[in-house]
Each structure stands twice: as C-alpha cells, then as structure tokens.
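[retry 2/3] Protein-glutamate methylesterase/protein-glutamine glutaminase: previous attempt timed out, resubmitting with same input.
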Amino acid sequence: MSKVYRVVIVDDSKLIQTVLRDLLDSHPQLTVVGIAEDPHEARDVIKQTEPDVITLDVEMPRMNGITFLRNLMRLRPTPVVMISTLTSAGSGVTLQALELGAVDFVEKPHDLDRNIDHYREVITEKVLQAARVSGATLSAVQQRLSAQPAASTPVVSPPSEKPVRQTLARKICAIGGSTGGLEAVTSMLKGVRFSGVEALLITLHLPAGFTASFANRLNGLLPITVKEATDGEKVYQGMAYVAPGGRHMEVLRKPGGLEIHIQDDPPVSRHRPSVDVLFDSVSRACGKQAAGIILTGMGKDGAAGLLTMRENRALTYAQDEATSVVWGMPGSAVKMGAVPPEHVQPLLQLSRALEHFFVSSH
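[retry 2/3] Protein-glutamate methylesterase/protein-glutamine glutaminase: success.
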C-alpha cells in the first residue's frame, strides 16, 4: 500500500485554505492534517501534526515568510512548497524562499472554474514530490543555514561594472532544470571560475514574472552578464541568457552568428519554456561545439533533447542523484542514455566541467 503523506497548509486566506484542502485531499497519497493562518499558529500546528510537507503562502499580513522559513529549515527541516502570486514582489520573495530550502513553488490559484483540473494536477504533483525529498537533502539545507547568522537574509551585491562583450560566441553551454533547479543553477555557476569566453543559455520551468528577477539575481552574483533573453539578439561571449518565463527559447545559426529565438508554440513535455526545445535547437545549431547540463527537477523534460545533443557529438552532463532535490529530469536523461556514466556528477564537478569545456579545443 502506498504511503499517505501528511500536509499542513499555512495561508491567511480562508478561500485558499479551502481550495488547497479540497485539491490535496483528493489525491490518495495526500491528506491535510492541519491549517494555520500565521507563523505563530503554524509552529503549534506543525508540532502537533508532524507533517511530511508544508504549503506556505509567500505574502501574508503580520508575517515575515522568509524568517519563518529560515527558522523552520534550521530547527525542524521540512519540505516546503511555496504558494506564490505572480507579482514582482512575490517573485523576489519566492526566489529567496527557494534559496532558503523551499523545494518548489506553485502559482496561487485563480480562475478555478476553467483551470481546476490542471491546477489540481500541478499542485498535487509538486506537493507529492516535495514530500519525498530525502532526509539527506534536508540535512544539507539545515547545515548550510545553521552556518549563517540567524538574522541574516540572502544578500545579492549590486553588479560591478561589467565590460561590454562584442565577441560572438563560438561554443555554448545549454543548461536546463525545473523550478527546484533554481538553487542548483545558482550554486553551480557560483562555483565556476569564469574566464569571460563562456556563453550560457538557461531554461528553467518558470512562469512570466519570475525570470527577470532570477536573471537580475544571478547577474549580481556572477562576473559575467546575466539577462532575460530577448528575441533576435546575438549570443556573445561573457553572457548568460535566461529563457523568459512562459516562453520557449531556441538558438539558431544565422550568417551573422548564433541568434536567440523566443516563441510561443504549445508546451513541449508539458512545459513552456521547455528544456527539450532548447536542447534540440542547440543540437541543430552547434553540434559538437556545445555542451548540455540537466539539473534537478521533476518529470522528464530535457532528457530526449539531451540525447539528441549527445548523438550530435555534444558533451552532455547530468546532476547526480545524491545532490539533486528531485532526480526526475536528470534521472530520465541517464536512463535514456543521454549522459555517459562518468558525466553524472555533483554540482561542484559540473562547475569544473563547464570551465573545461570552454577552454578546451573540443
């Protein structure tokens, strides 16, 4: 018999409480065991019910959600799925929450009359996957946060003046992951010793409103320039381009060099933007002058595209299971044969692989 996972909902809206409870309880492996309207009540409810997973509203009155989440992950690490609104403020707080160990986020429900079945599928899948996160992953988050001052908040320094790059990229690295891969992308790229010749294309499963915040956040952390990609721009060295939320990103080879194409075709592998769309285009445009890296995330988006890249002699890599929050996407790529066994690596080794690719004569 399949395990039934215990869920606590933390949200100040009675309507959202009711909607979430009905949707989550409809899944045979999920049961809502408690509801709290604020962090003080949440502490008591969590102690009483010992949930396997928590849904947490991003923005609530009289609540500092970031402080609550940090304290939870330091003192009683529990998988958390953030319930987010698609606002600039909401996206910023959600990105901080993911940095602090939240497993994933889901958009706050709206227009349920038309989208109820889709929303039920999305939220139950994400909550179920979060509930299955390993104790080792939670312990790693706890250790990382315990090493920080309790009152600290993630700080991103404003980017220093960066040189304008005008050298067209000859080689590119395509990186893909799901929303849970935000912290993995950040950690991997922070570990790279950049030489300035790198050109990166990044697709993550993010909705509109989140990618600009994420790109700005990375831009403040890295010596290269990171931006949300726009249709028709050239791919230059010393740049990282993030697929706009809710839109596919491709790269095309034109007479004047590699060019980014942003389009709104239907979802691929259930996602838009899709990692498969990016990887397939990189395979066509660059062949062996490309590398592909697939990071933690649920589902199998990107696996087939990465296999196509490998068949066209690109270097392909996958995050290993031990360091992945959810080994769905990289695991699918490995099972499909898209990645040689020696290229299934933890994040730090992936940082080294990315460095080597750009300085090698591959």
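[retry 2/3] Protein-glutamate methylesterase/protein-glutamine glutaminase: The longest helix spans residues 112-131.
[retry 2/3] clearing retry counter.
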